[in-house]
Amino acid sequence: MGSLFRSETMCLAQLFLQSGTAYECLSALGEKGLVQFRDLNQNVSSFQRKFVGEVKRCEELERILVYLVQEINRADIPLPEGEASPPAPPLKQVLEMQEQLQKLEVELREVTKNKEKLRKNLLELIEYTHMLRVTKTFVKRNVEFEPTYEEFPALENDSLLDYSCMQRLGAKLGFVSGLINQGKVEAFEKMLWRVCKGYTIVTYAELDESLEDPETGEVIKWYVFLISFWGEQIGHKVKKICDCYHCHVYPYPNTAEERREIQEGLNTRIQDLYTVLHKTEDYLRQVLCKAAETVYSRVIQVRKMKAIYHMLNMCSFDVTNKCLIAEVWCPEADLHDLRRALEEGSRESGATIPSFMNTIPTKETPPTLIRTNKFTEGFQNIVDAYGVGSYREVNPALFTIITFPFLFAVMFGDFGHGFVMFLFALLLVLNENHPRLKQSQEIMRMFFNGRYILLLMGLFSVYTGLIYNDCFSKSVNLFGSGWNVSAMYSSSHAPQEHKKMVLWNDSVVKHSRVLQLDPSVPGVFQGPYPLGIDPIWNLATNRLTFLNSFKMKMSVILGIIHMTFGVILGIFNHLHFRKKFNIYLVSIPELLFMLCIFGYLIFMIVYKWLVFSAESSRVAPSILIEFINMFLFPASETNGLYRGQEHVQRVLLVVTALSVPILFLGKPLFLLWLHNGRSCFGVSRSGYTLVRKDSEEEVSLLGSQDIEEGNNQMEDGCREVTCEEFNFGEILMTQVIHSIEYCLGCISNTASYLRLWALSLAHAQLSDVLWAMLMRVGLRVDRTYGVLLLLPVIALFAVLTVFILLIMEGLSAFLHAIRLHWVEFQNKFYVGAGTKFVPFSFRLLSSKFNNDDSVA
């Protein structure tokens, strides 16, 4: 594993790949994931590149595999997902695999098409059977008019029209029968009435069971209808209306014997179709089961092959040497593995001329590579969400591993809540190899990816909960309180001490609503609690006042230390990039400005804690008043914290005042002086050589005579702007903006760290309210119903604790901790303007199947 303090050193390498070995070499590189390719054909369209045909072939194979996965999922056949990743297929096997997949696709489509056709015919025959069964009750044959007419039960009692009249008119009675969707019956009947003007008789009845639609496959309710009409023109209109409403129309038998013959024929055909359909489904399932055994490896192979050809399209083709030239970014530590991968690829292809690589110098900024493991990955993602670090600058993730969960725990300090979070994260860590957790839903997968962050957050919350002595809003007396109540009684002291101290007696205890413990009384305060807050403060009425004072000062101290540490890390950046003048003209003035004001504030807080005791606490000056007087210079003398305080504060203010103009003007004036031909030590320069150019401030001006003599003193301090690009106004404006932002930010950022106190207070109060509203009520119920009520109260308390205090409050503290790191800490030294190193690695390819029946 590389260093987490800085990104790894990168180099630009040029690969010379023989045409016959390029595929195998890139396959070996993809398995190891060592390099990031640069596109050497940016001006060439994607459709005009050399390997576009191979990419289209891979896309065609992907399309076939997507179809196979869809059919396998439709047949409810489990898709195997092997742990081992198969290598990219050799070029000799690609055509064979393509032929096999195409043949399998044609066979599957044909069998599936026949199956669907058989299934549709079966459903139509079943509908026809139901239609004949229902319409049999509609119409009864009349023996007298059997050759020509059919009569309806409703017409026998109809006096408007009899069969003798129809026979005299020579009318021909026609029928249309079929099935219609239940929701279309009413509109269908109205349309027939309006179009046919009442010359039709519609009879319909609802089927007892729902049938599957042969067209859509949807199971719906159907109505069987029988339409009788007179005349061919009306018949044509009826048939068009049936087509318009998507009715399933079937032939209607003219005689009872014909109906019986059709019914017998339908039953025979239905039995035959069931047999053929079952055999077709069995054969189709056998083919799909055989295809499912290899579909996982085929998907991985095709995906790897497509990735290889995409990388080959980024290479330039040398016609004279018949080789491909690629440019890649590679960590210097992996150059040996890169050469070995090229040798393996050349050996597998059997080429006589091996592929090789050369490192080439460049002025371009390399991508940023910071190697992580499963523990550090989550913290690095928090930093990268702000911005990928610039090349070789200090990486905040190394310190975020400790500072992030600690600042979270300061806001979330509760022993019980932290222990629950720790157990949940520990459960995820112990079962991290479980396949269900890796394939869980998005929210659960988010918790799983941040399991180590949750683990440290819970562990640090347990520690801060012990410091606050807070466990589900209750204190725990582990070591015994350091306060003694009995020492406040007058009987415990001599009579001559009663006048000097305010002591208790039976009358005072009986008539006083609030009793105050005086630590100045001998024997009352026996020493500090060994770990954290004394549990007796949980009973005190001024508990909130005491904790607010403690947490507020603690937040200020932690914030100033955190920001000062960020400024110090900026010094390491200046040393690494050989910008020592930034240390003297930027970092040191920033440190002096921070420490002379806010560092002195920490000194006053700690000094007052150490010097003043319970006996002298009443005469102790206010830190806030003393800090304000430091800037106001009051005319009257005040009782300070220590002797000579006024002189020390004036010296600190003078240092602060001097650091501001240096911070504003020091760097621009130095660059101007350097631009006018002055050396850092007052020596005139005779010539200038451009050594490096990453930004306007990373250009060195070196004298030719210094280079000849090997004098590299100026390399450490004089790396600035070239003559042609020097713009003093722009540099001055940039530095002024940065200085104003820093000076004002020191004040606003220090106040921003008070969120540590505010959220800690909010979390403690919410926990206290939840306990008072639920657990206290449940515990105060009498013994008769107490047990029955306590169980649901405990369950409700647990649910609200998890959702409100653990999830909602935890998310709030998590977001505030991120803000403190991004805004208050990282902006002191972290630029975050780099590009992430994205290697050509097959491990980055997804090997899972999506839920939408397609390949991931």
From TrEMBL:
The gene is ATP6V0A2. The keyword Translocase does not apply. Keywords: Coiled coil, Hydrogen ion transport, Ion transport, Membrane, Transmembrane, Transmembrane helix, Transport. The chain crosses the membrane at residues 406-430, 451-468, 554-572, 584-607, 651-674, 786-808. It is found in: Membrane. The keyword Transmembrane applies. InterPro entries: V-ATPase_116kDa_su, V-type_ATPase_116kDa_su_euka. This is V-type proton ATPase subunit a. Essential component of the vacuolar proton pump (V-ATPase), a multimeric enzyme that catalyzes the translocation of protons across the membranes. Required for assembly and activity of the V-ATPase. Residues 94-128 form a coiled coil. It is a multi-pass membrane protein. Belongs to the V-ATPase 116 kDa subunit family.
